[in-house]
């Protein structure tokens, strides 16, 4: 009996150790290093390993960091809102109006943009949004505008549009799953009890889709905060985000400790917001499970 | 007064003819059952009345008003769904109050009627309970309260008892019947369980393949089935071929009967409990035939014997009460069976 237990636990440990080790080496290690670095300082090439909170004080005092973090949160919020609002009708359509036998095909089609690299997709948005881009030449051709409009490239709008497109499938899938789980008899019951289609949507469908919406929000929000490719390529000077500053600190200014401190700060910000959402999710899930 | 009136109602699913020219009148205050095997169209018919299925031709009137253009939310019907369809994100009281949003009742009046409805179905004090903390029987009661609180003209029940265990099902059958008498609303029950239909209904429509095969009260349905199919669907029916013989009918195994010959008759049927096995020492009574026990099934209160007769290919089922001191006969025992001509029903095919 005791042998069985130790045999089982040994086998369990054996199964768990590869992922545990990779997590330790590839995630916990770098994370610890970043936190450690953030309390050090660097003077050109020499690393000063005395413990100090100077980097955090500087991050708090220099307005540029606050501005960039605020902008990152704003962009991430806007992208999340736009993505979830546009993803919902798509997920709803697939779940409620596509024949069951065709649903996997539709989900497959939604992943097609992923067949191209992220970088190329961002470049393609430059072609679409640019001064002589698809939208401008199209609108001029049709005669809606006389001169190219410029508020759609090299600013925050472009960043938001590009990111919202890139993350759409990540939002569609969890919302679709939540909608699929809704018993269709509930919708009929609501109609039977006197509610119109619209009222049924707000009183039954939407509350039951909430876990999917919260999941979609988290899945989009967290990676968008840390994105630095899209802001660099389509954001212009006013579209840079906190991740661009972290990159600059590490690679251009040779100030890894400052970059590490900024990384820790944005991580904390994300953690606070994510925790809030997880708490909301729990609240909604508690009623259901 | 006629509450629901269907005439010439047709419905197809692709090439499948789900409802074939249905004509049906259901009276106000009636406990009406739609009975049939799965796929016979009974649920489709119920959903048609609720407004979840469009009809292709024919008319449906509820309380005299044509329902063609009336969506389910504006029909004077409420439904208890097979899965109960209890809203998982609402508690019991919120579920019951769901349909009251548009009513003229104030918040406090709503609380009162919800409480009354819960009391009526025996869920007093369950209001704050989460919907997913309920058992199957409780969920069904919530579904009932949720529908009845709106005081519909017609309550539609889609196989409401099929998910319950046997004991609870029998209890709910009587309770539903009591509830129907109490509120006086027209109940329409869909079921595939013939016993359930017999116990609960004032009238039963037996459906096969999208058509109503017979519409009658339970006793008529059981005693005088209109066709062999109806007879065999409801309860057990022993069916024997009939020969036309010199102006009289001769039943295989049982012999000639005094009924005059009719060209159309091809089979005769007799119920297991209308025949009896004569135990040793019992005198002959009514008509008697010699038989042999082929098989038996012991049910505790009853024993069902399969008996074989000369001149009959199939066996007959005879049910006998296990009275005090009555022996359970062994397979292979030769016996006399007693039957009465007036228990026979004749079928065309």
UniProtKB/TrEMBL annotation, chain A:
GO terms for biological process: transmembrane transport. Its main location: membrane. It holds the Pfam family BPD_transp_1. Keywords: Cell membrane, Membrane, Transmembrane, Transmembrane helix, Transport. The chain crosses the membrane at residues 12-40, 73-93, 105-124, 158-179, 200-225, 260-280. It is a multi-pass membrane protein. Residues 69-277 form the ABC transmembrane type-1 domain. It is found in: Cell membrane. The keyword Transport applies. It comes from the Bacteria. GO terms for cellular component: plasma membrane. Coiled coil: none annotated. InterPro entries: MetI-like, MetI-like_sf. Belongs to the binding-protein-dependent transport system permease family. CysTW subfamily. This is Putrescine transport system permease protein PotH. It comes from Nereida ignava.
Automatic annotation (TrEMBL), chain B:
One of its GO terms (molecular function) is transmembrane transporter activity. Residues 4-234 form the ABC transporter domain. It is an enzyme of class 3 (hydrolase). Its EC number is 3.6.3.31. Keywords: ATP-binding, Hydrolase, Nucleotide-binding, Transport. SMART domains: AAA. It comes from the Bacteria. GO terms for biological process: putrescine transport. One of its GO terms (cellular component) is ATP-binding cassette (ABC) transporter complex. PANTHER family: SPERMIDINE/PUTRESCINE IMPORT ATP-BINDING PROTEIN POTA, SPERMIDINE_PUTRESCINE IMPORT ATP-BINDING PROTEIN POTA. This is Spermidine/putrescine import ATP-binding protein PotA. It comes from Nereida ignava.
């Amino acid at each position: 009996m005791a042998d069985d237990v130790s045999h089982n636990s040994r086998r369990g440990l054996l199964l768990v150790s590869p992922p545990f080790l990779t997590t330790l080496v590839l995630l916990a290690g770098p994370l610890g290093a970043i936190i450690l670095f953030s309390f050090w300082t660097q003077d050109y090439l020499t690393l000063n390993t005395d413990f100090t909170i100077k980097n955090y004080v500087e991050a708090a005092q220099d307005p540029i960091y606050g501005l960039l973090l605020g902008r990152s949160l704003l962009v991430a919020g806007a992208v999340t809102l736009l993505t979830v609002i546009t993803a919902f009708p798509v997920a709803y359509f697939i779940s409620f109006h596509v024949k069951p036998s065709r649903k996997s095909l539709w989900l497959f089609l939604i992943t097609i943009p992923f067949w191209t690299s992220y970088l190329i997709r961002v470049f393609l948005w430059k072609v679409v949004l640019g001064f002589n881009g698809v939208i401008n030449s199209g609108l001029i051709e049709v005669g809606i505008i006389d001169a190219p409009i410029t508020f759609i490239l090299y600013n925050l709008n472009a960043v938001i549009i590009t990111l919202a497109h890139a993350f759409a499938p990540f939002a569609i899938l969890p919302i679709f799953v939540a909608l699929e789980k809704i018993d269709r008899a509930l919708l009929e019951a609501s109609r039977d009890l006197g509610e119109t289609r619209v009222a049924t949507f707000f009183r039954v469908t939407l509350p039951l889709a909430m876990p999917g919406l919260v999941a979609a929000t988290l899945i989009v929000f967290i990676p968008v905060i840390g994105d630095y490719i899209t802001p660099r390529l389509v954001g212009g000077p006013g579209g840079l985000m906190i991740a661009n500053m972290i990159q600059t600190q590490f690679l251009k200014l040779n100030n890894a400790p400052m970059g590490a401190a900024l990384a820790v700060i944005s991580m904390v910000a994300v953690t606070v917001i994510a925790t809030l959402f997880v708490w909301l999710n729990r609240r909604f899930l508690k009623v259901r499970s | 007064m006629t509450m629901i009136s269907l005439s010439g109602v047709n419905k197809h699913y692709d090439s499948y003819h789900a409802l074939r020219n249905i004509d049906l009148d259901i009276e106000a205050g009636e406990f009406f059952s739609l009975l049939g095997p799965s796929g016979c169209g009974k649920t489709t018919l119920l959903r048609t009345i609720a407004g979840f299925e469009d009809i292709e031709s024919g008319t449906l009137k509820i309380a005299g008003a044509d329902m063609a253009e009336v969506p389910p939310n504006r029909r004077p019907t409420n439904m208890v769904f097979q899965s109960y369809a209890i809203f998982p994100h609402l508690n019991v009281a919120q579920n019951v109050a769901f349909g009251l949003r548009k009513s003229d009742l104030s918040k406090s009046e709503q609380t009162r009627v919800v409480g009354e409805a819960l009391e009526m179905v025996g869920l007093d004090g369950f209001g704050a309970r989460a919907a997913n903390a309920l058992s199957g029987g409780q969920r069904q009661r919530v579904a009932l309260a949720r529908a009845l609180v709106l005081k519909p003209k017609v309550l539609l029940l889609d196989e409401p008892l099929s998910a319950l265990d046997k004991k609870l099902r029998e209890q709910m059958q009587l309770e539903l019947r009591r509830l129907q008498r109490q509120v006086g609303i027209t109940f329409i029950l869909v079921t595939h369980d013939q016993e359930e239909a017999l116990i609960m209904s004032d009238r039963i429509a037996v459906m096969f393949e999208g058509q109503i095969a017979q519409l009658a009260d339970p006793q008529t349905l059981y005693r005088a089935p209109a066709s062999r199919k109806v007879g065999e669907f409801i309860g057990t029916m022993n069916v024997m071929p009939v020969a036309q013989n010199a102006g009289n009918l001769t039943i295989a195994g049982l012999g000639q009967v005094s009924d005059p010959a009719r060209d159309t008759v091809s089979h005769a049927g007799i119920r297991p409990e209308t025949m009896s096995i004569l135990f040793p020492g019992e005198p002959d009574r009514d008509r008697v035939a010699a038989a042999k026990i082929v098989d038996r099934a012991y049910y505790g209160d009853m024993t069902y014997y399969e008996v074989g007769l000369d001149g009959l290919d199939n066996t007959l089922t005879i049910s006998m009460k296990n009275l005090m001191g009555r022996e359970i006969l062994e397979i292979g025992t030769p016996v006399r069976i007693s039957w009465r001509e007036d228990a026979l029903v004749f079928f065309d095919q």
